[in-house]
Design goal:
The chain has one domain. It is elongated and about 105 Å long. The chain starts with 8 loop residues before the first helix and ends in a 13-residue tail after the last helix. It has six helices and no strands.
């Protein structure tokens, strides 16, 4: 990072906040997964944004006096390589993660959710007689309806 030197905490916080804002903006604006070209473009924009944040606060007096420091060919090559590797890793992760998570759920689900046949039924825990067929239960209710109105 930054010519082999770790950035100070202020630059790092600004970079993380700026990149998170870029990611949140893209995440809410894009309804479906972007294609490979859009992924490369978004990652490149994030690289430029991160580079500007890190160089802006680290060399603020020099930037105000001389402008943005010129980018070396090595630095540009490393940014392009990092963008390409990250784009490739994202594409592979998008294909592999659903299958991996499905396999994990298939392994864990039988442990956490036992089959219905093995679950104890609450009505079998406390023995109770079936009151629906008991004549003594039905008799007080009676089967006679209300009296018919006399004319």
């Amino acid at each position: 990072m930054a010519d082999g030197v770790l950035p100070d905490s202020g630059s790092l916080v600004l970079m993380i906040a700026a990149c998170a804002a870029l990611g949140a903006t893209v995440g809410t604006a894009v309804r479906r997964s972007p294609g490979p070209a859009a992924t490369l473009g978004l990652l490149a924009a994030g690289q430029v944004l991160a580079h500007l944040c890190l160089s802006a606060l680290d060399d603020l007096p020099a930037m105000l006096h001389h402008g943005v420091a010129p980018a070396s060919p090595f630095m540009i090559a490393m940014h392009v390589a990092a963008t390409g590797v990250t784009a490739g890793a994202l594409r592979v992760a998008e294909a592999v993660l659903p299958a991996l998570l499905t396999a994990i759920v298939a392994l864990v689900q039988p442990v956490l959710d036992p089959p219905a046949a093995e679950c104890p039924r609450l009505d079998r825990l406390v023995p109770a007689r079936d009151a629906r067929r008991d004549r003594h239960t039905i008799a007080p209710l009676g089967t006679r309806g209300p009296p018919v109105m006399a004319r």
